[in-house]
Amino acid sequence: MKINYFEILNNIQVPIKLDLRLLDYKEKKPLNIILHGFKAYRNWGFIPYFAERFTKDIGPTINFDFSLNGIDNEKEMLYNVDLFRTNTVSQQLKDIEILLNEINDSNSEINKLLSPIWNGKVNLIGHSLGGACSLISAESFSQISSVVLLGSISKTDRNTERQKREWREKGFIEFKESYSGQILYLDVEYLEDKERNKDKIDLRRIISKLEVAICVIHGKLDFTVPLKEAEILIERAKNSKILEYLFIDKCNHTFGVSHQFNETNTSLELTIDKIKSFLN
């Protein structure tokens, strides 16, 4: 298996970093794209392991960094605070658009590697906030044929009115990163961007109209994004071409994985088996 590293400059001249894994397949395959969640990155935890397994069992796979995720030191999980604080959901969606355009550009190096083995279809596999971005993007790009939601949120408005008021008063919100203890910030633009685009990023509206294949996988012990949110997504996904789901016992938001990833576990293997059967 070869891992090909690329950097794509986006609309604000910040690189989108990505790894493309591929093999010599007997027939053309769909492309899998893994979207990381909030405070994560393309090599966090189980993501590289997923990428390797999907490449072997499903098709070529990309795991990428959203341009403003701010990760500076993956091993120590340290961030460029100034970069991280400028992130918005709109920029993440723009990054996906730019990545898809690059993949489809016949003059790009990525496309040249993919074209002999790619059938033109795209599977989005998103964790947490990455699940939300997957749903929103699936509404905009017709070549996205399947969406896998791992511990996905069902709404983008996730702050109390008190939190929003304090956020606006200070101009930023701050919180501690649990692994390193680093203090991170998000500027109020993150909040205001979501409010300006609330209809565009209304996940419950979007999933009710999507006709693509959808698979929802959620841990029953997910206290970060409660299981109820997965149930809401499933209930709303009435027009999906195919709808499958898996709720995993004794499984948390990160599928039993923390930084750093050392070995697989039952929750991860159940998740991989479900994704393989769904996408194949």
Structural class: alpha/beta
Strand order of the largest sheet: 1-2-4-3-7-8-11-12
In round numbers, the mean pLDDT is 97
The N- and C-terminal alpha carbons lie at a distance of 20 Å
Let me know the CATH homologous superfamily.
Alpha/Beta hydrolase fold, catalytic domain
Number of domains: 1
The level of helicity is 25-40%
CATH topology: Rossmann fold
* Low-confidence blocks of residues: none
CATH class: Alpha Beta
- Biggest sheet record: 8 strands, mixed
List keywords for this structure.
about 280 residues, alpha/beta, Rossmann fold, eight-stranded mixed beta sheet, two-stranded antiparallel sheet, 10 helices, 12 strands, about 25% strand
What's this model, at a glance?
The protein has 280 residues and is of the alpha/beta class. It has helices at 47-57, 81-84, 89-104, 109-114, 129-140, 161-170, 188-196, 203-209, 227-236, 266-279; strands at residues 2-9, 15-22, 29-35, 61-64, 71-73, 78-79, 118-127, 144-150, 172-176, 183-187, 213-219, 243-248.
Describe what this molecule looks like in 3D.
This protein has 280 residues and is of the alpha/beta class. It has one domain (11-156, 203-279): Rossmann fold (3-Layer(aba) Sandwich). The chain is 35% helix and 26% strand. It has helices at 47-57, 81-84, 89-104, 109-114, 129-140, 161-170, 188-196, 203-209, 227-236, 266-279, and strands spanning 2-9, 15-22, 29-35, 61-64, 71-73, 78-79, 118-127, 144-150, 172-176, 183-187, 213-219, 243-248. It has an eight-stranded mixed β-sheet with strand order 1-2-4-3-7-8-11-12, sandwiched between helices.
